[in-house]
Structure formats: C-alpha cells, structure tokens
Design brief:
about 260 residues; alpha/beta; Uracil-DNA Glycosylase, subunit E; 7 helices; about 30% helix; about 15% strand; rod-shaped
Length: about 260
C-alpha cells in the first residue's frame, strides 16, 4: 500500500496534476472541495496532421522587421434616428417663416381738378364737398390765382375724385391703386389740353399725383407723364397757419415765369 508522498511522486512522474481516487485511500490527505466541481466541456480543436519530414537546405533567416500597429481610427456615423431628426431640424430651419400680410385700409380723400389759364389745379376739398362761391377755402384759392396772374374764376373739370371708389367689394383700393387712378385721371385731362404747370394743393394731391410728401411743399416736382408740378400746402392748413403764406409767395415768384406769357 502506497503512502501519500509516494503516491504524489508517481502522479508527478505521469504528469498528472489533479486526480481523484475512485475509493477512499488509506493514509491519503483529505480531498480539496474545488476538485470535486464538474469539469468544463472540452473545446474541440482541429490539429493539422504533421507534414512529412523533408530535407531542408539551411537558409539564412531574414531579419525580422518590427511590426508597427497603426491605431484604428473610428469614424462616428450618425444613426438613422439622428439623421432623421437632423433632416427634420434642417427642414425647419430652411423653411421660411410665414409672412403676415397686414391689410392696409384704403386712404380717404376728395380732390377737385380745375383749369386756370395755362395751369391745371388739383386741389383737396377740405369738407369733401364741391366748392361753393362763399367758402373761405375757395375764396383763398381765388386770391392765390389772382396773385399768380391767373384767372380767379377757374373752370371746374369733371366731378370731384372721391376715394375709396366703392364702399364694399374685392377691388383693390389701397394707396398704390389710388395713385394710379389719380394720375390716370389727370393725364387724361392733359391729353385733352396740355398745361404749363400742375398745381398740387393739399397733401392728398401731393401724395397721390406727385408721389411726394409734406416735405415737398413749395417745391417744383417732375412727374413722369404729368410734367412739371408745384406742391403746395392745403387751403385749410394755410388758413390755420397764416405764416406759411410767405413761403408760398416766395415759391410762386420763382415759378411764375412757367405760366405767364410775354404779353402778360
């Protein structure tokens, strides 16, 4: 019967590292519990059959070159969900914001066209109604024509131009449409009989016939299709602010040669 030390010597000679006796051995050391655990399944490995030995002529071994491992660069690729979200975001940024169109109310004014000698006078009707012989504004207009050397009883041409034309409807009656209408109305009268200078009295006349503003008062304007024009303040404004009459008189003296003949 072998003792423990001799038994281990035999096992070492047979290259057995771990072993488990089938029966309890006398004089044997107690077994370790980890050796009783089931062994893992063996992994099948295919071992190539050794090639038959051949006569090999000794050749000088080549110098081994060091292998340099290049770092692998990972290129981030967007996921499908991220790409879709990005496309939606780009579409939202590229899509222009809706433009809010603010409806502009139509302007409201009344204009009367008159002929005085070689001039046409487009004047704002302060009350919206046609001039009466005793109206203060009409009497002021007669004084201005008399001072300019023109007939002080001007000829009324057509009915007053009242804007807007329609109270309801789909017709465009904004500022641009009002300008085109007023200029067309005056141009038709000029084709009947031309004039030396067109007087524009009042802001609506200056704005919609001369395409100018109040800053152009007492100045000469050149209007495409209508020729030379003179911008003046409204009759009501001249009565409320009499100091403006001096500027009107100075401008009248500069422009008087346009409508006065040599015989005058």
């Amino acid at each position: 019967m072998l003792n423990e030390s001799r038994r281990r010597a035999y096992m070492t000679a047979m290259q057995v590292v771990n072993w488990l006796p089938r029966t309890e051995l006398p004089f044997a050391a107690p077994s370790r519990p980890e050796l009783l655990a089931p062994l893992p399944l063996p992994v099948e490995q295919t071992v190539a059959a050794p090639a038959p030995a051949a006569v090999v002529t000794p050749v000088a071994a080549p110098v081994a070159r060091p292998v340099v491992e290049r770092p692998k660069i990972e290129v981030p690729r967007p996921s499908l969900a991220r790409t879709r979200n990005g496309a939606v975001a780009d579409a939202e940024v590229a899509a222009p914001a809706p433009i809010k169109v603010v409806a502009v109310p139509p302007p409201r004014f009344a204009l009367q066209l008159l002929r005085a000698g070689r001039c046409l006078v487009l004047v704002e009707l302060p009350t919206g109604e046609a001039f009466q012989s005793r109206d203060p504004s009409y009497m002021l207009l007669k004084d201005m024509l008399r001072a300019a050397g023109l007939p002080d009883s001007p000829q009324i041409i057509g009915e007053p131009v009242r804007w807007p034309l329609l109270v309801r409807g789909q017709l465009d009656q904004g500022p641009a449409a009002a300008r085109d209408f007023v200029q067309g109305f005056v141009l038709a009268r000029l084709e009947d009989e031309p004039c030396a200078c067109l007087w524009l009295i009042g802001l609506p006349a200056v704005r919609f016939a001369g395409e100018a503003s109040a800053e152009s008062y007492n100045r000469e304007l050149q209007i495409d299709g209508l020729g030379s024009a003179w911008a003046l303040p409204g009759l009501e404004l001249l009565m409320d602010e009499p100091q403006r009459k001096a500027d009107v008189w100075q401008a009248m003296r500069r422009l008087m040669t346009r409508w006065k003949t040599i015989d005058d």
